Amino acid sequence: MNWNQPLEFIPGKVITLSTHLEKPSPFYFGYDIEKSFTAELEKYSFDKIFFFTEPHLFALYGKDLYLNICEKYRCELEFVPTGESCKYFPVLEETCEKLIEKGASKKSILLSFGGGTVGNIVGLVAGLIYRGIRFIEVPTSMTGQTDSTLSNKQAVNGKTGKNHFGVYHSPIFIWTDTKYLKTDPPTSRRSGIIEGVKNGFISDATFLDYLEATLHQDAKYTDEELYDLAYKIILSKLEILKRDPSEKTYGIILEYGHTFGHGIEWLEKGKMSHGEAVSFGMKIAAELCQELGLISQADVDRHYHVIENKLGFNNPFPKTITADKLMDAMIADNKKTGRDLRFVLLEKIGQCDNRQGDYLVTVDPVLVKQVVENFIQRQQVEQKTLVLA
Ligand SMILES: NC(=O)c1ccc[n+]([C@@H]2O[C@H](COP(=O)([O-])OP(=O)(O)OC[C@H]3O[C@@H](n4cnc5c(N)ncnc54)[C@H](O)[C@@H]3O)[C@@H](O)[C@H]2O)c1
């Protein structure tokens, strides 16, 4: 793939892809493609659409799409709480019960219009009602468009960790319009792009070269640049999913930096985005790989350079997170797999370690804790130096 070849920017043109998952969904991509949406709906038979979004996203863009749908079909508007706060049991229960009261049937379709959080809660509600009804995802954030919709995992958070309760449920289609990315806040944009940076580190060094040359530290991009960038990040994930649609063998590499990242995100209790937590997680994972003799100091430095200088994720590490707290959070989170602390590790830039026949490698917790302690200590020294300067 020649990543440097720009995708021709044709507003209104719908590009058809597939998610390449075990239960694949059509993935429609374009800029300003709203007018074609109802034509796609015509392929399906249903009694009603329940349109879920956040109030500010409805005011920004959702209203146009909603009114378009209302012209031809029965459609009802529902709001969910903003951001991660919608991914909890009380919201799940309330939403499910409300839908039953409002007459949702097995023939109804739910539509999520928003970031990864709206997609996750609506996907889970759709997976549970009557043991599963259909849903459509219209992602509006960079993470939603390039990452969370390319996975059929729908979940809410539990008391001790992220995404503990959920189901695999695939949408009938995904509708990605990069026009919405214009107002995606910088942190949210970076959160989506970091997963692309990760895809470069784990599977394709040439994609990393492209991102390193293309990214802007201030996260400001033109419509054309966002269109090109989102498309290529999507392709970089699809290349991985084509090799493992289950995401359980080779696809596990997508979890690079996430063992640390999920722990950090959880400890920050909504104050830090998923993507920013993963950006710290990737830096610590790189340090761990170097400690294990897998990659060089130059490779570690490249993580810092791309994440901080190119992507612009350069906030200080939260002072409240200690090595002990992070280890406890990771162990709690790891109960999912019921095994020791396991990590995706790099063998070199663009390739993950699979010498034991598994892309999740068990690492001695004592060593992991040492790496985390060193990372936190260095961060604190850097912050002190910055204050003194
Ligand atoms: N299922 C998966 O495999 C998977 C993968 C990655 C992430 N996720 C989940 O996705 C969530 C993160 O998704 P996210 O980063 O999209 O977060 P999000 O849904 O909280 O959106 C981030 C913020 O951006 C706002 N926003 C979204 N689109 C906007 C737009 N076009 N203009 C202005 N504001 C906009 C939202 O209101 C929110 O405040 C996490 O819960 C994470 O666990 C799931």
| Cα end-to-end separation | 44 Å
What's the shape? Answer: globular
- Major beta sheet, specifics? 7 strands, mixed
What is the H/E order? Answer: EEHEHEHEHEHEEEHHHHHHHEEEEH
Main-sheet strand order equals 1-2-9-6-5-3-4
What ligand molecules are bound, each kind once?
A: nicotinamide-adenine-dinucleotide
CATH fold assignment of the largest domain: Rossmann fold
Beta-strand proportion? 5-15%
Q: Ranges with pLDDT <50 over ≥5 residues?
A: none
| Total domain count | 2
Radius of gyration, Cα only, in angstroms? 21 Å
Describe the structure.
This protein has 389 residues and is α/β, with parallel strands linked by helices. It folds into two domains: 1-254, Rossmann fold (3-Layer(aba) Sandwich), CATH 3.40.50.1970; 256-389, Dehydroquinate synthase-like, alpha domain (Up-down Bundle), CATH 1.20.1090. The protein has helices at 37-41, 55-72, 89-101, 116-128, 142-148, 186-203, 205-214, 223-243, 258-267, 274-291, 297-310, 323-333, 365-388, and strands spanning 15-18, 26-30, 49-53, 75-79, 109-114, 134-139, 153-156, 165-168, 173-177, 342-343, 346-348, 351-352, 361-362. Helix 4 (116-128) links the parallel strand 5 (109-114) and strand 6 (134-139). The longest helix is centred in the last third of the chain and has 24 residues, at 365-388. The radius of gyration is 21 Å and the shape is globular. Nicotinamide-adenine-dinucleotide is lined by residues 54, 57, 60, 82-84, 87, 114-118, 120, 140-141, 143-144, 147-148, 151, 153, 162-163, 180, 183-185, 188, 191, 273-274.
